[in-house]
């Protein structure tokens, strides 16, 4: 049984442990605030999961018009960094956090970037497409990325001609987007590439004088190879959709996507090149995901629902290193309020870049290396300095609230209770004995805290504890 | 606090790695310009005779790599023609891993340069033994328990810099150093998280020490060399800054990205070749100005070469490629053999076949430059070159 029991009160409603909800929201979204946890803990866990998963997927946010008014640069879509501004706003504020998290997940898997095309509008359309499709069927996602102008240019499918194939897209579709290395041959790549000949885009409006314009997918019959292909043991006059249909039904695809999901939502796995050699960390969990994938015929909603409700998920607290987007959005969420007019928003694109993750511009089609590879001396420094700056600044409403919550404790807190309360308030965190001891040493110096005692010295002591907590190794984990 | 040896007399040898990410088109970097086959296979993505820059009777540099030709003529560049390994991987991911770990068949956890750091600094007493510039730490430098420093911005490297009260900041950094001490409890039962926690602890401690050592570096550097404004030039200038500060760094790592030219290769490769060759030229001049050239050797490599035939606009992933060893110590010239470009000799009917194993090149640098036993590091005994004076 899971250690986080759902418990019944008076036999008619169920409450859920806050630590479990905080965990779910770190993974299925971008963290939580103390108020959110108070509210959600009155519901039962499965219905919290269902509410996250069963959402109407829409691209527009309520605050879209305000954002646009305050950031006129958003209208000129050439600046892809401005779209990241909007994306961070969504991560922090969206009422549908899983939609933003899944969009980020697919952006990791189908890594497509701005650098090569320097074409903002198609990249922005690309992310919007991922957002629309994020909880749909995998075949819809694969078909839409194959017919996406940003992807077509990124992997040169516009240069993949009936008479002269360019196998870049065909190769990565199999290696990085759906099956993983070792599950197909070089011949399969060539035949898949042939099936995608003629999948290209219309020439967009000229760049000058108004800047970049959107582009539309077109299927150019004249440039398509209608001949017979042989793909993964099947023969036929396959077009791109037929290739995707064959891929989605393979067990290799179910395993590959399941492992991606496990790595992104449950616990860090080794980097993708190792997947064909190293077995998954939790084979039982993989079986559950793979079976759900196959039984539901690749319905991502059902796979996500099953995953979040599984024991392996509930038992996976703090087994992932936060990616920069998660780190930034969740730290902001708990320390401050970011409205659509907040001028700090425009700095987040550059900030995530120095932490090693430029959204809409991954380092290559391989996407980002995850897990502890997010961390090196440079990125750890940026992360710690950012979190320390936010949490120690009492102009931030969330940070002030975190201090007030401690001040307002009705009883005097022992040093142990003080540290535990600090951990609880900052999102039900867990630290090692060593870190606990270091915090305890600081907690036992200076004035006693709690019982509504309030003065400058007490506040400074509490701020110092929060500052040290967000500097701890454990704060890097989700 | 860390102390470092002041060099007395002969300076410690230093290796600078320049990684060209994405798979550099070697056939268009060092061009067999007298061979008609080149012009046949590179109908669209090739350089006309008269545009490429001849430096021997048969070979020419890329038209934008004039600075390379100058370095070559000064006798400071050894060209390793035809580098690679058996069953070359065409996946960027996997190929880069293979170059970084010297393990073509299994997935290894230790980078080759991380083992160099361990040899040079077995007690991890200097976090600056290896310094990488750019975002993210390359796998070549990563291994459990090995500390190295990764710097994105040399001008602002340090922890909790927003705390204005210096006494408070120092006291906090003191607590920080204790939180980032590897603990017994992270081992055993919680082994898996333990690996991550230990890694975090080592990284955090390294930052603390490294930042302290690096804080005066940018203000001390002065030079008359004007580098261009691009990422590789900036990284190479930062190498000079840290190297001339004398902090004991023995391995520097830099990356130049964007070499994956499936399409529109001509303008993109032009830009990169110009940036790379001029950046290295300026770097060598800067080192001379600081009397710091003798101890430095540069290795320039890429994870694979590209297909012999172009695809009309670019070139797809290939196998064998080429590498460069550059420095004052180097006995310039051509090393190993240029792979035959006769179609019948192409690997799998489409790629350049390597003539020299990359692990032999690493071995050459390790043994003949850094003075280390290469076999444990490159995981085998590979034929070496003799590129040094």
Describe the structure.
The complex is a heterodimer of chains A (478) and B (389). Chain A has 478 residues and is mostly helical. Chain A has helices at residues 18-28, 34-40, 45-53, 64-70, 80-93, 97-109, 120-133, 138-146, 149-154, 168-178, 186-195, 240-248, 251-266, 283-295, 300-309, 311-314, 324-335, 348-354, 377-391, 397-407, 415-425, 433-443, 456-471, and strands at 7-9, 13-15, 199-201, 217-219, 229-231, 234-236, 412-413, 449-450. Chain A folds into 2 domains: 64-314, no CATH class; 390-476. Chain A is built from 23 helices and 8 strands. In chain A, the strands form 4 sheets. A two-stranded antiparallel ribbon of chain A has the order 1-2. In chain A, strands 3-4 form a two-stranded antiparallel ribbon. A two-stranded antiparallel ribbon of chain A has the order 5-6. Chain A is globular, with a radius of gyration of 24 Å. Chain A starts with 6 loop residues before the first strand and ends in a 7-residue tail after the last helix. Residues 1-13 of chain A have low confidence and may be disordered. Chain B is α/β, with parallel strands linked by helices. Chain B has 2 domains: 14-155 and 215-378, Alkaline Phosphatase, subunit A (3-Layer(aba) Sandwich); 158-214, no CATH class. Helices cover 33% and strands 13% of the residues of chain B. In chain B, helix 2 packs across helix 9 (265-289), helix 5 packs antiparallel against helix 6 (191-214) and helix 8 (231-244) packs parallel to helix 9. Classes of the chains: A mainly alpha (478), B alpha/beta (389). Chains A and B meet through helix 10, helix 19, helix 22 and helix 23 of A and helix 3, strand 7, helix 5 and helix 6 of B.
């Amino acid at each position: 049984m899971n250690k986080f029991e759902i418990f019944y009160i008076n036999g008619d409603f169920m409450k859920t442990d806050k630590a479990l909800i905080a965990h779910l929201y770190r993974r299925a979204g971008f963290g939580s605030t103390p108020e959110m946890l108070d509210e959600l803990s009155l519901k039962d866990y499965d219905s919290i999961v269902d509410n996250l998963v069963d959402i109407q997927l829409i691209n527009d946010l309520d605050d879209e018009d305000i954002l646009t008014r305050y950031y006129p640069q958003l209208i000129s879509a050439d600046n892809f960094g401005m779209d990241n501004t909007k994306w961070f706003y969504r991560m922090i504020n969206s009422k549908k956090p899983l939609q933003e998290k899944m969009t980020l997940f697919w952006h990791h898997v189908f890594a497509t970037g701005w650098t090569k095309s320097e074409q903002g509008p198609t990249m922005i359309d690309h992310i919007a497409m991922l957002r629309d499709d994020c909880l749909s069927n995998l075949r819809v996602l694969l078909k839409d990325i194959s017919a996406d102008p940003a992807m077509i240019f990124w992997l040169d499918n516009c240069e993949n001609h009936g008479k002269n194939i360019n196998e870049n897209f065909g190769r990565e579709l199999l290696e990085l987007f759906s099956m993983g290395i070792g599950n197909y041959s070089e011949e399969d790549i060539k035949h898949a590439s042939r099936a995608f000949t003629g999948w290209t885009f219309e020439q967009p409006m000229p760049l000058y004088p108004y800047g970049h314009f959107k582009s539309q997918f077109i299927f150019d019959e004249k440039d398509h190879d209608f001949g017979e292909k042989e793909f993964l043991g099947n023969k036929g006059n396959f077009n791109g959709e037929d290739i995707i249909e064959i891929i989605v039904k393979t067990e290799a695809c179910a395993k590959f996507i399941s492992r991606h999901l496990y790595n992104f939502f449950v616990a860090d796995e080794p980097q993708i090149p190792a997947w064909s050699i190293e077995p998954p960390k939790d084979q039982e969990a993989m079986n559950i995901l793979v079976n759900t994938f196959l039984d539901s015929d690749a319905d991502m909603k059902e796979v996500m629902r099953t995953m979040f409700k599984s024991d392996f998920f509930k038992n996976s607290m703090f087994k992932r290193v936060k990616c920069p987007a998660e780190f930034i959005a969740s730290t902001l969420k708990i320390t401050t309020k970011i409205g659509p007019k907040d001028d700090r928003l425009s700095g987040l694109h550059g900030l995530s870049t120095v932490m090693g993750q430029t959204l809409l511009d991954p380092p290559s089609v391989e996407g980002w290396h995850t897990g502890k590879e997010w961390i090196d001396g440079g990125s750890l420094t940026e992360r710690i300095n950012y979190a320390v700056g936010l949490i120690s600044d009492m102009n931030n409403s969330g940070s002030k609230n975190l201090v007030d919550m401690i001040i307002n404790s009705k009883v005097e807190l022992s040093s142990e209770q003080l540290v535990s309360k600090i951990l609880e308030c900052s999102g039900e965190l867990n630290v090692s004995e060593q870190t606990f001891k270091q915090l305890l040493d600081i907690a036992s110096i200076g004035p006693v805290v709690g019982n509504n005692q309030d003065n400058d010295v007490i506040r400074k002591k509490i701020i110092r504890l929060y500052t040290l907590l967000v500097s701890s190794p454990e704060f890097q984990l989700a | 606090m860390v102390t470092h040896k002041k060099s007395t007399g002969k300076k410690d040898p230093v290796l600078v790695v320049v990684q060209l990410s994405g798979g550099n088109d070697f056939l268009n970097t060092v061009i067999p310009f007298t061979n008609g086959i080149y012009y046949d296979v590179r109908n669209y993505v090739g350089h006309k005779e008269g545009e490429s820059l001849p430096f021997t009777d048969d070979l020419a540099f890329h038209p934008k790599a004039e600075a390379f030709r100058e370095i070559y003529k000064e006798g400071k560049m050894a060209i390793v023609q035809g580098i690679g390994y058996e069953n070359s991987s065409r996946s960027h991911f996997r190929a880069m891993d293979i170059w970084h770990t010297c393990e073509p068949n299994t997935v290894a956890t230790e980078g080759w340069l991380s083992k160099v750091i361990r040899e040079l600094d077995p007690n991890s007493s200097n976090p600056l033994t290896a310094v990488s510039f750019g975002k993210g730490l390359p796998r070549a430098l990563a291994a459990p328990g090995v500390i190295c420093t990764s710097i994105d911005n040399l001008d602002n490297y340090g922890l909790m810099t927003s705390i204005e009260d210096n006494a408070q900041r120092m006291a906090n950094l003191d607590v920080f150093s204790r939180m980032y001490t590897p603990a017994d409890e992270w081992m055993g039962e919680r082994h898996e998280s333990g690996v991550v926690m230990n890694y975090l602890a080592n990284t955090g401690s390294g930052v603390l020490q490294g930042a302290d050592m690096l804080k005066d570096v940018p203000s001390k550097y002065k030079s008359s060399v004007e580098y261009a404004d691009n990422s590789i030039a900036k990284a190479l200038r930062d190498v000079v800054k840290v190297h001339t500060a004398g902090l004991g760094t023995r391995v520097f790592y830099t990356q130049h990205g964007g070499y994956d030219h499936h399409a529109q290769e001509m303008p993109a490769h032009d830009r990169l070749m110009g940036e790379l060759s001029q950046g290295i030229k300026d770097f060598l001049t800067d080192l001379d100005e600081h009397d710091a050239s003798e101890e430095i050797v540069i290795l320039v490599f890429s994870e694979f070469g590209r297909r012999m035939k172009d695809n009309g606009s670019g070139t797809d992933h290939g196998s064998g490629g080429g590498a460069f060893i550059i420095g004052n110590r180097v006995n310039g010239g051509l090393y190993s053999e240029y792979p035959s470009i006769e179609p019948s000799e192409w690997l799998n009917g489409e790629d350049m076949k390597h003539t020299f194993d990359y692990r032999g090149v690493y071995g050459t640098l390790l043994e003949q430059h850094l003075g280390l036993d290469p076999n444990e590091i490159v995981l085998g005994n590979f034929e070496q070159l003799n590129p040094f004076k």
